[in-house]
Specification:
By secondary structure, this protein is an alpha/beta fold. It has seven helices and seven strands. It is 46% helix and 15% strand. The model has no long low-confidence stretch (mean pLDDT 94).
Length: 196
Amino acid sequence: MENNNKHEHLRLKLGVSGAAETGHCGLDALDKAKDLGREIVKQGGILVTGATTGFPLWAAMGAKEAKGISIGLSPASNQKEHQEVYRLPIDYMDLIVYTGFGYSGRDLLLTRSCDAVFIGCGRIGTVHEFTIAYEDQKPIGVLEGNWDMDEVLKNIMEKSNRVNDRIIFDANPKRLVKKVIELVEKVRVEEKLNVG
């Protein structure tokens, strides 16, 4: 049988970062996470998360509802450790990469594996993933909502003494994904021109 998807590896890998524990995120946070996951798939991307609970898990649910591909990067070394030590789910994932690097190492691999990173309601791990992507000049989409993360990130950016013009803030998941994909394409063109 011929593989009609021989260029599947060229699809955009779009990461979603957010809180594993979402009690502080507000009532609509998980619905917005699902909407974000759905939009990533509808607009042609592959979802990549930290294979965790909360906001990223709901994004994975949305991606799977839209019949998309969902990849998780786990802090654990294997499935047993993933489920028994870290107490993380395996649902809604087409593939889980067991990094064995704990949370901080996983965060680095997650952000570097993606063409862009989306930030939702989060806590310190989300800030960590944001700062890695920020430092790497990765395109970033910040989903605004009934949480403080977007304001926290604006404060970090203001005090960072570094300029990064590859960050988009928007409260609408569909619009945010569209803008970030456009930014990724623009960055790719710029990088090709700079190499050539």
